[in-house]
Design a protein that fits this description.
Length: about 35
């Protein structure tokens, strides 16, 4: 993964305060990458 993508993920995580929402986002990304 390139740096800009990691920065985008980091920005989204900073933007979202809820840990549950963070876990849901990580879960959805993993599902996308595993397909």
């Amino acid at each position: 993964m390139d740096k800009s993508y990691n920065q985008l993920l980091y920005f989204n995580f900073k933007l979202i305060g809820s840990k549950q929402k963070k876990l849901l986002i990580i879960k959805s990304f993993l599902e996308i990458f595993n397909k």
